[in-house]
Design a protein that fits this description.
By secondary structure, this protein is mainly α. The chain has four helices and no strands.
């Protein structure tokens, strides 16, 4: 960590408030320290006005759509191909073994 962030009297909460203020473009005022409720309300208000969720990221399911349908389609296709090959192979084997007799 940086020596500036480990100043005497500065705890994790102070660093958190400074980081949030820097992220939202506000100047850090030691006189106007916000409570956790006020800070959460400000974050929610800013996120709502920018049109993004509070987390700042879209849900994973929206970014990486599941390939379940595509995988199940290939799985069932392979089952059909294997079954068809088995049936054709058994008919061919049966004609080779018993067709000449």
């Amino acid at each position: 960590m940086n020596e500036d962030s480990n100043k005497e009297g500065e705890n994790a909460w102070d660093r958190y408030v400074k980081a949030k203020n820097a992220a939202f473009g506000r100047q850090a005022d030691s006189e106007t320290a916000m409570s956790i409720e006020e800070l959460e309300a400000a974050i929610a208000e800013t996120a709502a006005s920018s049109g993004i969720p509070e987390t700042g990221m879209p849900p994973r399911s929206g970014v990486h759509e599941p390939n379940r349908l595509q995988l199940s389609k290939w799985f069932y296709l392979m089952l059909v191909v294997l079954f068809t090959t088995l049936v054709i192979g058994l008919f061919w084997w049966g004609r080779q073994e018993y067709g000449d007799h």
